[in-house]
């Protein structure tokens, strides 16, 4: 069987609706929940809980789902804030992924100008509050549609913690929680609307911890061995490595601990590294060199070093059979339309974006479909190697906004963000309905998936056998 399909063939695949399935309007089910989307997204934005610490956020989503009759399995894969919610019986299993963790070190009010919130140590700079709320809305809309139409099938919402550097989905994949899923659906906040078949970079991270000998930096410097020297020596060698890495690779770090006072030789220092590459083997090759740099730095500075792998994600395995249908559903829904008040707010944000700014009207447009390499990383990648997976991006942020920015935090807590989440929810709902009613599409997606993985594929995570780092944000 061929892996990809002509536009005509895809049009045939996308017409699998059964007559009985047309007795309910799935988009109307999403529209009826606009208030829920806003309420939940706002609460997740206010809490801005970090990875594996999303106790209130996880509980809120579970409460909303339980009120709609979903059965809940909490604490799956050894992660207290991970869960699976399911409704339905028989038929195919369609999964929708939900994220809800925030990012440390950045926060912002809902203002269109830079306005950090005093005392708040994290913010929804990647829009995961919208991701969680939009996915929740879609799952409930699909559940109501299944009940009204009597369509056999099970809709699942996977509550997936710690996407930001914690790889929650990897542990869930490793535990086999996606093995019986027919298709998985996800989405992400963005500054544009797209269902392009976008791949990602595989990545791995670790905290490198150097131990030295403390001493008075002026009175007895010869007695000291600076752990910070070890970190800086490692960073110097790593920065020289950049010249000799593939152009598609990425490596970055932050010093998370470097001492407390200049006149004390620090006996502990820590640096947190990320390595990315389109292929897991490329990550491993660079990683081996990085470990050698750490050993060399310790040897040269008279210190000791050890490291802990924190997270690791495989690259996203795209499924064009599904992506082209998702693109059609997104075009059916359309983009984000601003009110006059929202447009004025958006123009103020746009002024802060410099050369990256785009016309705010582009939020209403759908980007052309294509297949491309994205330079971010996500633990959805591991899910995509366990079951056919498809996603989209919705314009929840002002066009030109970068993820992990204060502008993204601001928009994620505003009506513009909520509207983008509704666009995503409608698109995912239509996609799920198509999958429940179109066995030919499911079969074609599975055929492409099997061909892409190959007959001898065996899943391997980039985490090894470590347990979830539940304290990595403490």
Automatic annotation (TrEMBL):
<dbReference type="InterPro" id="IPR017439">
    <property type="entry name" value="Amidohydrolase"/>
</dbReference>
<dbReference type="InterPro" id="IPR036264">
    <property type="entry name" value="Bact_exopeptidase_dim_dom"/>
</dbReference>
<dbReference type="Pfam" id="PF07687">
    <property type="entry name" value="M20_dimer"/>
</dbReference>
<keyword id="KW-0732">Signal</keyword>
<keyword id="KW-0378">Hydrolase</keyword>
<dbReference type="GO" id="GO:0046657">
    <property type="term" value="P:folic acid catabolic process"/>
</dbReference>
<dbReference type="InterPro" id="IPR017145">
    <property type="entry name" value="Aminobenzoyl-glu_utiliz_pB"/>
</dbReference>
<dbReference type="InterPro" id="IPR002933">
    <property type="entry name" value="Peptidase_M20"/>
</dbReference>
<dbReference type="GO" id="GO:0005737">
    <property type="term" value="C:cytoplasm"/>
</dbReference>
<dbReference type="GO" id="GO:0016805">
    <property type="term" value="F:dipeptidase activity"/>
</dbReference>
<dbReference type="GO" id="GO:0071713">
    <property type="term" value="F:para-aminobenzoyl-glutamate hydrolase activity"/>
</dbReference>
<dbReference type="InterPro" id="IPR052030">
    <property type="entry name" value="Peptidase_M20/M20A_hydrolases"/>
</dbReference>
<dbReference type="InterPro" id="IPR011650">
    <property type="entry name" value="Peptidase_M20_dimer"/>
</dbReference>
<protein>
    <submittedName>
        <fullName>Aminobenzoyl-glutamate utilization protein B</fullName>
    </submittedName>
</protein>
<dbReference type="Pfam" id="PF01546">
    <property type="entry name" value="Peptidase_M20"/>
</dbReference>
<feature type="domain" description="Peptidase M20 dimerisation">
    <location>
        <begin position="205"/>
        <end position="296"/>
    </location>
</feature>
<feature type="signal peptide">
    <location>
        <begin position="1"/>
        <end position="21"/>
    </location>
</feature>
